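In response to the reviewer comment on reproducibility (Comment 2.3), we provide here a single inverse folding case reported in full, input and output, so that an independent group could reproduce the run without further information from us. The structure tokens appear first.
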């Protein structure tokens, strides 16, 4: 069984890349399982990836390279015994150290497990090439990668792409480098997928670093269940966009240059509306996916942002969601989780 670790900072395109990778492996007749690690208490990417019918497990409330090692071991062992996949793909949280994850898994002494080269994705539209602005955990991710994937090249100019390639090469002399748009695909992206069939040659990181402490990222996740009649798809999409814009605007007031990820999923009537914002200047991206089965109507929001106080982030998220649902005169309740109190409207 092969283990593929696809790392990268929040919003670098890991979920899109993994969806394409699953499709690619499926065409080769491979049975694939995915482990998604969200830093918050709820998962969102697992909803999106599991649309493909692939076995998906979520590990939440921390980071798999430091605080959640035991959860990771239990999850991998249960997948191997119950599902027997040919490939396990791990999508760690955007602040994780993929090489440390690899080292943790190697210590689990799992028979017949090999590793693909460790991948780190970079968002070409947001990466600063000023060494002073590059945060330590992002530098570590770049330096430790065996494959560097420069994503979203469809939205940057050629000179900017060259600048990024030179900058990344200074930080990592050995990694193979590819630039592509995961969303659009193409030859370079297909080559990257093919490379994942090879074996990792990197030595694992021996040290124990807590990525959450190092990152300076505040994270908050919340879930709301709608108890009133369904909305039209058009209204669902517009409400999702407005919630994301409101959270982004408040975060921008607190830190005009924040980077990170605000993710939203809104499920109802067999449809999943997924939205995200990955920087202070970006407009929300909204995607509509068909789900199977009649799920309850619910909104999940996960946000992880740099240099925004957590209590302000909590207030921004909850105010945005409650305000938009109140505007639509909808009945809803905030889902209770351990250590949280529910609110009813």
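Designed residues, in position order:
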């Amino acid at each position: 069984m092969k283990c593929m670790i696809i790392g990268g900072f929040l919003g670098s395109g890991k979920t899109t890349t993994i969806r394409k990778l699953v499709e690619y492996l499926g065409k080769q007749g491979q049975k694939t399982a995915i482990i998604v690690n969200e830093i918050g208490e709820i998962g969102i990417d697992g909803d999106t990836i599991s649309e493909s019918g692939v076995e998906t497990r979520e590990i939440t409330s921390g980071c798999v390279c430091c605080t959640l090692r035991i959860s990771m071991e239990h999850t991998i062992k249960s997948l191997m015994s119950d599902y027997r996949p040919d490939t396990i793909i791990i999508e760690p949280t955007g602040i994780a150290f993929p090489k440390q994850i690899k080292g943790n898994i190697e210590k689990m002494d799992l028979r017949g497990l090999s590793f693909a080269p460790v991948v780190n994705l970079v968002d070409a539209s947001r990466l600063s090439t000023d060494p002073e602005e590059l945060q330590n955990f992002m530098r570590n991710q770049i330096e430790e990668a065996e494959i560097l994937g420069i994503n979203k090249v469809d939205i940057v100019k050629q000179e900017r792409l060259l600048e990024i390639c030179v900058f990344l090469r200074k930080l990592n002399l050995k990694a193979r480098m590819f630039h592509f748009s995961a969303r659009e695909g193409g030859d370079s992206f297909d080559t990257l997928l093919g490379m994942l069939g090879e074996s990792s040659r990197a030595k694992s990181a021996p040290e124990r670093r807590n990525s959450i402490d190092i990152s300076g990222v505040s994270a908050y996740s919340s879930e709301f269940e709608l108890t009133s009649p369904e909305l039209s798809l058009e209204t669902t999409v517009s409400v999702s966009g407005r919630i994301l814009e409101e959270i982004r605007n408040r975060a921008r007031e607190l830190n005009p240059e924040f980077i990170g990820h605000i993710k939203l999923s809104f499920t109802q009537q067999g449809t999943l509306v997924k939205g995200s914002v990955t920087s202070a200047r970006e407009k929300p991206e909204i995607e509509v996916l068909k789900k199977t089965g009649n799920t309850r109507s619910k909104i999940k929001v996960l946000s992880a942002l740099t240099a925004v106080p957590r209590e302000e982030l909590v207030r921004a998220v909850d105010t945005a969601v409650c305000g938009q649902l109140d505007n639509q005169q909808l009945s809803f309740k905030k889902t209770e989780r351990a250590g949280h109190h529910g609110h009813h409207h």
